[in-house]
């Protein structure tokens, strides 16, 4: 996990969970820019804008929290991208099948490996459907580079 912070917001990035759909890049390119280093610039937009973009991250790879003394109204920072969202908002688990993409799991859940250890705990997970991911069971976005599409036997 990597952190990018200023006095009003902390952005947490879990690269191993990123499915690379580019949602953050499209929604807020002045903050999320792969051409710059660091690629996350928390000073390029208001914290509330960053929060709105992170709340739409489909894989949960981007999260946020507020440091002590932040000017952000904590009530406005309670979305699904909040680092502590699952603790405060237990919900049913929903699994969405993405056309030509991963399975998106939303809701408080545990992903447990064959050894019985927890691989991921949280509110959003993108799971590989194509079998090409280098980070299985997580999606790494390689399906789009490989041109993968479900076949006729893929009922979902």
Automatic annotation (TrEMBL):
- Pfam families from the entry? Fer4_19, zf-CDGSH
Please state what the protein is called: Iron-binding zinc finger CDGSH type domain-containing protein
Could you read off the lineage of the organism from its UniProt record? Bacteria, Bacillati, Bacillota, Clostridia, Eubacteriales
In the record, what terms sit under GO molecular function?
2 iron, 2 sulfur cluster binding; metal ion binding
Q: Which residues form the Iron-binding zinc finger CDGSH type domain?
A: 78-149
The record's Gene Ontology cellular component field reads: cytoplasm
Q: What's in the keyword line of the UniProt record? A: 2Fe-2S, Iron, Iron-sulfur, Metal-binding
